[in-house]
Amino acid sequence: MSDEIGGERPSLTDIVRAEQVRLLYADGSTYFSTMLAAATLGGILIWEKTLTPVVAAVWLGFLAFHTAVRLFVRRAYFKADPPVGDWARWGWRATAGCIVSGLTWAAVLPFLLAPDRFDLQALVLAAMVVGTYGVIGSAGSFRPALYSFFVPFLSVIPWLLLQGDTLHIACAVLLGLWLPSVAAMGRRFNASLEEALTLRFENAALADDLRAQKSVAEQSSLAKSRFLAAASHDLRQPVHALGMFIGAMRSHRLPRRTVDLVDQMDVSIAALDGLFGSLLDISRLDAGVIESKPVALPVQPLLARICRELEPEAEAKGIDIVLAPTTAWVRSDPVLLERVMRNLIGNAARYTQKGWIIVGCRRRGRRFCLEVRDTGPGIPTDLHEAVFEEFYQVGNPDRDRAKGLGLGLPIVKRLTAILDHPLEMESRVGEGTTFRVLAPRAAARAGAPVPRRPAAGDLRTGFILAIDDEQAIRAGMTALLESWGHVVIAAPGGDAGVAALKGRGAPDLVICDYRLRDGESGLEAVRKVRASVGVDVPAIIVTGETSPERLRQAQDSGHLLLHKPLSHARLRAAVTNLIRRKAAPAAAE
Q1: C-alpha to C-alpha distance for 514 and 523, rounded to whole angstroms
Q2: Which has the closest alpha carbon to 310: 302, 321, 299?
Q3: In the predicted model, is pLDDT for residue 536 greater than 80?
Q4: pLDDT tens-place string over residues 62-72
Q5: How far apart are CA 540 and CA 513, in angstroms?
Q6: What's the count of helices (H) and strands (E) in the chain, helices before strands?
Q7: Mind listing the pLDDT tens digit for each residue in 263-286?
Q8: HSE-up of 61 (CA within 13 Å, CB side)?
Q9: In Å, how far are 341, 358, 405, 412 from 367, measured between CA atoms?
């Protein structure tokens, strides 16, 4: 059924009326049941010799004819599938058929009510009463059609009164009293149906509106993600290059004043790195490229390391960080769990101005509850959900960067969902906040190996091919890597890198930007280099991307993925590790 009336959306009343008319036409069985009841009743009366075959033939013939007409109109209705605004015309067509049917019965009833045979009269009246109740269900959806079925009684009641005896007059009075109650029943049925249809279409309209708003929100979110991906990539490029240059400067002898300026530049770049890192974490979590790899791990070393690193910040404000000793082991992803607890403890250290922070672990059923409790300002109850939204911060209307970015708790919420670790929060204004992370218990492993950092002198240098389409980054990368003792060739793309390697053999490592010019990706460039040298050279893909699709592609490549802006310490550790790993098989031989 069309929803348009003259190019405009129909009103709710029109929609409800159109549905009532559709229900009126939907019940086609009443046509045949009425015809069958009439033929049966006529047959009984002919058998009892109270109805002549001629009258019966005329009555049933006309009844069959207008029943066929009504069935034809019904078929035309469903074939036409009329618009909502056409409900009145089709509704009155159906009502006209009901009126003709009622008049047909009214005209024949004096012939059906056999004189001196009260038993047959009672049979006819019983059939009419039963049929009337059936009509409420079939024609009750449209009130005019419903009332048309009371037409036959306009001839029955006068006929009963004309008989003159007490019994027939009593029957006429009873029918007169019964008809209003049946009419009231039909009205209630019709009103209930109309109310139900109104609620149904109102809910449908609300659902459509919600879907439309959801679609708009999803499109807006997609547009935001695209903008964020493009903008973050473009912004990361100069910051990344600047970080390379600063790292290279530190390898030179500089005046003390210059060293101080370089330190300040490093602090600013670290702040930008924190912003980009948080934005990237949100994008990676939404992209689904982060997976949990749970293992059994002890809780104490993880919490102790975080508390130790955050103690200077807390001590500067006169706050004590108290770590309750624990021997608990949990089953979790050590990297993701550390990020969760670092965010929670870091938030406590940032927002607590006086008092203390208690970090500990306690048993709860089959889980351990990692708990961070502070004496900070607390979070109002009506904001308990809002603090998990991106960029929302309580009590920071001026967006003071010293108070963070408002991304820590959204990241915690996403990470705990990936880990399947329930996250709980309790907070009271003026009293502090408690966060709890529930992790599954794990059996303690005796003699579990403790990871060691490589010794300071345990470094290897190598031959590195650096690929980036921006001259500034190639220059900064070359200066930084050479300051660490590596031999470096820089190229703007995969083909240029292959050309630069001719006669020099395979590099020990390829460091390549993910997005290059002319539509070339870093993955393609690495494939070209590997194909040209015939060796699966290890590679580091450096990216400023935040779009979920490209993050998945880079994640699935099997190469080490690092994100811009890249600190030289992080890059140095990755380069050293990959070159040492490549050299290990050769040393074994």
Answers
A1: 7
A2: 321
A3: yes
A4: 888 877 888 88
A5: 8
A6: 17, 12
A7: 777 767 766 666 665 556 556 565
A8: 6
A9: 16, 20, 31, 19
